[in-house]
């Protein structure tokens, strides 16, 4: 059963490929290597014993997308990770983000709707909810205007999918709204490796601990939270990857009530930035150099998931603790720097 994973050499994509292969799926990866490394293929093979098929394709090139799908007539599903994802960069380069994140989605869907039956999983984000402090974000909430071009590409992507599913009942789609993926595979063969300065908290912590960054800046110590720092829902990337397998099985078994569904993926709990730092210091036995500075524009106090829908409908629940996730991230950081 052939499954195509776009952006499959990226952080979440590579972990999902591992879980797909562990479940017996044949995987074909599409990646343009703009924000990933071909070495990840070896990492995947080291874990699963199988090297997935790989094609280097820039999905912005429509003719290459058409050629790929004409060669892969028997594919059973597509999991679409390929996208640019840095909020700050999206503000500086909005047209790049709309081309990369919206244009490529359209090209892939244009090929899928030609099939008699097609299954599609979309990598979405909690940013579609906008700001909502002091209570968990549930799927019942109306989507809010985006606060960045990146966030808007995810909201537009979901709108495109909903409209396309209405017009094409042969297409079944699930959008998965991620909260804050962290950690690495417990084997330390694959993990998060940002190019340049990290945009996310955990790789900044591990790089600071390795001496690559001078210090970690904590943006704001006066938020209305238990210790004054922002609260986020940190989910282990392996748990996140397993949710994609569950969603795919739901599509393949035609269990969905409609041909467009969406689910939150998080732990259902929030942790402050200081709690994440304390977790790192606990699992690493290292003291982290950090400093609390002024709030960062665009941040909000709290963002954590209501996960009941994913728990009950998908039959999925995050299993790993924060300490387990942070420990795996630290082991991955140590390994890649030693190499």
UniProtKB/TrEMBL annotation:
Pathway per the UniProt entry: Carbohydrate metabolism; galactose metabolism
What cofactor does its activity depend on?
NAD(+)
This entry's Gene Ontology molecular function terms read: UDP-glucose 4-epimerase activity
Recorded hits in SUPFAM superfamilies, A to Z, give: NAD(P)-binding Rossmann-fold domains (SSF51735)
GO BP, one annotated term: galactose metabolic process
Enzyme Commission numbers on file: 5.1.3.2
Q: Which UniProt keywords apply?
A: Carbohydrate metabolism, Isomerase, NAD
Q: Where is the NAD(P)-binding domain?
A: 5-327
CDD domains associated with the record:
UDP_G4E_1_SDR_e
Q: Which domain of life is it from?
A: Bacteria
Q: How does it assemble?
A: Homodimer.
What's the protein here called?
Answer: UDP-glucose 4-epimerase
Q: Which organism is it from?
A: Flagellimonas nanhaiensis
Kindly list the organism's lineage: Bacteria, Pseudomonadati, Bacteroidota, Flavobacteriia, Flavobacteriales
């Amino acid at each position: 059963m052939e499954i195509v994973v776009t952006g499959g050499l990226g952080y979440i994509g590579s972990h999902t490929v591992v879980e797909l292969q562990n479940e017996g799926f044949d995987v074909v990866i599409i990646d343009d290597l703009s924000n990933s490394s071909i070495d990840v293929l070896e990492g995947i093979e080291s874990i699963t014993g199988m090297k997935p098929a790989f094609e280097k394709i820039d999905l912005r090139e429509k003719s290459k997308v058409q050629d790929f799908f004409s060669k892969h007539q028997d594919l059973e599903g597509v999991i679409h990770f390929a996208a640019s994802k840095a909020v700050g960069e999206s503000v500086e380069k909005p047209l790049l983000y709309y081309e990369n994140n919206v244009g490529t989605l359209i090209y892939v869907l244009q090929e899928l709707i030609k099939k008699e039956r097609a299954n599609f999983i979309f990598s979405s984000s909690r940013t579609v909810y906008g700001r909502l402090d002091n209570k968990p974000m549930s799927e019942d909430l109306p989507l809010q205007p985006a606060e960045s071009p990146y966030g808007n590409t995810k909201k537009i992507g979901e709108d495109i999918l909903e409209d396309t599913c209405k017009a094409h009942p042969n297409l079944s789609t699930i959008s998965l709204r991620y909260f804050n993926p962290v950690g690495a595979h417990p084997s330390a063969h694959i993990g998060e490796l940002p190019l340049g300065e990290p945009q996310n908290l955990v790789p900044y912590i591990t790089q600071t601990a390795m001496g690559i960054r001078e210090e970690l800046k904590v943006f704001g110590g006066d938020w209305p939270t238990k210790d004054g720092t922002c609260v986020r829902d940190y989910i282990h990337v392996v748990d996140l990857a397993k949710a994609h397998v569950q969603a795919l099985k739901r599509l393949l078994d035609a269990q969905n009530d409609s041909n467009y569904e969406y689910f939150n993926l998080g732990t259902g709990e929030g942790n402050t930035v200081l709690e994440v730092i304390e977790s790192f210091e606990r699992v690493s036995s290292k003291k982290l150099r950090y400093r609390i500075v002024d709030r960062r524009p665009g941040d909000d106090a709290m963002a954590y998931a209501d996960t009941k829908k994913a728990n009950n409908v998908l039959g999925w629940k995050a299993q790993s603790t924060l300490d387990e996730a942070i420990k795996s991230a630290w082991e991955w950081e140590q390994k890649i720097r030693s190499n």
